[in-house]
Amino acid sequence: MSTTAGVSAGEVAVRSILIMADGERSDFDELIHPRAVNREGENEPPECRVGGPAGFYATALWMRTAFEGLAYDIHHVIADGNLVAVNSTMSGRHVAPFVVYTPGGDVDTAFPPTGKTFAVTQSHWFRIEDGKVAEHWANRDDLGQAQQLGWVPPTPAYLFRMARAKSRAKRAA
Prior knowledge:
Layout: E1 3-4, E2 7-8, H1 9-22, H2 25-31, E3 32-38, H3 52-66, E4 67-80, E5 83-94, E6 98-101, E7 107-111, E8 117-129, E9 132-140, H4 142-148, H5 156-172
Parallel strand pairs: 3-9
Antiparallel strand pairs: 1-2, 4-5, 5-8, 6-7, 8-9
Helix pairs in contact: 1-3, 2-3
């Protein structure tokens, strides 16, 4: 396992996941490479797509706004040189609209808050460069999360709330 300044690539990857729940901007500056790319950012708000610490921090704020008590439990970490895979469970409670975007940056869908909790498995993949996260990919159980939060299958009343939430999100964008 490669190390930089005594910190292993696996430790950098794990810390970069954990700060998504409660890290400060300075934590992102410390752990995320200035040219880092989040390969999962295509459906995130435009401010999350800039890469580097600013983009990763914007992603954290986007997630924290929608999901109160956001937390990650780390189950397994495997590192091979500068590549790291982390198996985890993400959990939280849906308390604010969760808005996803088109690749062009327009509002695609808005999920109004349900107040429900969720816990879903995720696998995160990282490339570490100079002791910092340079690239991130993820495989998430989005369907499981949608089912736990009541997004799928949607009730007619929830579809109406989604349409209203999307309209509001478009106006706010």
